[in-house]
């Protein structure tokens, strides 16, 4: 497949993305401690598309960085080490995979450009991010080059599988708001070329452009679908105790990222599956002070609903009386017990929820948690992530409390 390189030195003043393993640069220490079970071929967990690596070739304070992603992954390091920016890059890829426009995803693109990146002769600067998604098609790589200055646009994208370039785009004419794309066909014409918009991810647009008539086109579509499903199956979660204390209107029963409507969701989950709700109550009992016989949604006269703990002796404690740590623990436990049908996520096309591995992004995951709550939540996360239907990527200043946990991958970052 003869496709011109999409990541040329003139496109961005940052290192080119290669197919070789990423080696940390600039003396940044990154080590990963992993204790996990790798799914065997045919294992149900290996059939769910999921990300196995996040690459930040040049993004914010990261250069030449590659992060392994297991079912349960913690980025650990002091302030300024780039934990939050790594999560931000992951979420950006997820939104692009869902079809969002570039300007929606990067409200402040200049903040994503490495601080010391020099502009080229045309005064252009940008950043590069990428990932690998595993699933039925095997490992599929996606690398994206974004120009942040003077105009925000995607100037290069590459989708590869098994060493074969399936899609490659490049900015040929800066005066046009389009990139030249070439995708694998393997028919009478080995490569199909066409323009694509420069403000959207080309991989997410392929199902609208590729007919799927040849084996090559079908391979392109399968790889693109795997990548899109893996990217879109994301739930960014940051429980806000101040909002969780208030009664909420009865709504559609899907949990928001800030867990503001937790009371409404509890009413749904309690009615849907008694066995899962009993396990959730047991987890709450382990992380909250005092006896807990049940966790339920209590309707109020004004039509709203509030969440309460049933103490088992006729006393019900409204969540408004709980501490911040108890509320964050309770919300994160609920997230781990649920999935795509309950959490506020963008369903990936017609793919059944049973084939999706939902990834929860939790910045500063142990914030406000005491050691007991932290240990209970980690054990719960390890058990739920091992099942394969949910994954957790969190950040923490110090992950010593997670050392030696089966199934956990800890990536240590340094400024």
Describe the structure.
- The protein has 415 residues and is an alpha+beta fold.
- It folds into two domains: 1-237 and 343-415, Rossmann fold, CATH 3.40.50; 243-342, no CATH class.
- 25% of the residues lie in helices and 28% in strands.
- The protein contains nine helices and 18 strands.
- Helix 1 (83-97) packs across helix 4 and helix 8 packs parallel to helix 9.
- Mean pLDDT is 87; it is low at 1-29 and 34-45.
- This is ATP-binding protein.
DSSP strand (E) fraction?
Answer: 25-35%
Level-1 CATH class name of the largest domain: Alpha Beta
> Radius of gyration, Cα only, in angstroms?
23 Å
Mean pLDDT: 87
User: Helices and strands: which structural class?
Assistant: alpha+beta
The span between the termini is: 41 Å
According to DSSP, the number of beta strands is 18
Low-confidence stretches: 1-29, 34-45
Instruction: Work out the helicity level.
Output: 25-40%
Which overall shape is indicated by the principal axes computed on the Cα atoms? elongated
Report on the biggest sheet.
8 strands, antiparallel
CATH architecture of the largest domain: 3-Layer(aba) Sandwich
From the 3D structure, determine the CATH topology of the largest domain.
Rossmann fold
> If helices are DSSP runs of H or I spanning 4 or more residues, what is the number of helices?
9
Biggest sheet strand order reads 3-2-5-6-7-8-9-10
Following the backbone from N to C, one meets helices and strands in this order, namely EEEEHHEEEEEEHHEHEHHEEEHEHEE
Number of domains: 2
């Amino acid at each position: 497949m003869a496709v011109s390189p999409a990541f040329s030195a003139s496109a961005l003043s940052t290192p080119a993305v290669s197919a070789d393993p990423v080696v940390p640069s600039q003396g940044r220490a990154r080590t990963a401690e992993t204790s996990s079970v790798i799914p065997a071929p045919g294992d149900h967990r290996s059939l769910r598309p999921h990300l196995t690596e996040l690459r930040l070739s040049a993004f914010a304070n990261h250069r030449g960085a590659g992060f392994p992603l297991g079912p349960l992954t913690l980025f650990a390091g002091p302030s300024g080490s780039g934990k939050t920016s790594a999560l931000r890059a992951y979420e950006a890829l997820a939104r692009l995979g869902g079809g969002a426009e570039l300007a929606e995803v990067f409200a402040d693109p200049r903040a994503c450009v490495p601080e010391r990146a020099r502009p080229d002769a045309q005064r252009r600067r940008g950043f590069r991010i990428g990932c690998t998604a595993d699933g039925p098609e095997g490992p599929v790589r996606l690398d994206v080059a974004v120009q942040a200055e003077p105009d925000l646009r995607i100037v290069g994208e590459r989708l590869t599988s098994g060493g074969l370039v399936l899609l490659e785009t490049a900015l040929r004419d800066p005066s046009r708001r389009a990139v030249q794309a070439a995708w694998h066909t393997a028919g009478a014409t080995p490569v199909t070329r066409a323009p694509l918009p420069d403000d959207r991810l080309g991989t997410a647009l392929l199902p609208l452009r590729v007919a799927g008539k040849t084996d090559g086109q079908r391979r392109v579509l399968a790889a693109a679908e795997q990548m899109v499903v893996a990217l879109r199956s994301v739930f960014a979660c940051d429980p806000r105790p101040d909002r969780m204390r208030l009664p909420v209107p009865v709504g559609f029963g899907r949990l928001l990222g800030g867990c503001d409507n937790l009371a409404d969701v509890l009413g749904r989950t309690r009615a849907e599956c008694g066995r899962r709700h009993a396990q959730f109550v047991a987890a709450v009992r382990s992380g909250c002070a005092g006896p807990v016989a049940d966790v339920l949604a209590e309707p109020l006269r004004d039509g709203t609903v509030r969440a309460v703990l049933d103490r088992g002796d006729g006393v019900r404690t409204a969540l408004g009386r709980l501490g911040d740590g108890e509320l964050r623990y309770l919300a994160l436990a609920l997230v781990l017990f649920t999935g795509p049908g309950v959490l506020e996520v963008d369903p990936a096309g017609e793919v059944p929820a049973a084939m999706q591995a939902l990834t929860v992004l939790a910045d500063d995951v142990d914030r406000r948690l005491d050691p007991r709550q932290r240990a209970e939540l980690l054990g719960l996360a390890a058990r739920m992530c091992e099942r394969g239907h949910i994954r957790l990527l969190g950040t923490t200043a110090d992950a010593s409390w997670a050392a030696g946990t089966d199934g956990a991958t800890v990536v240590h970052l340094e400024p």
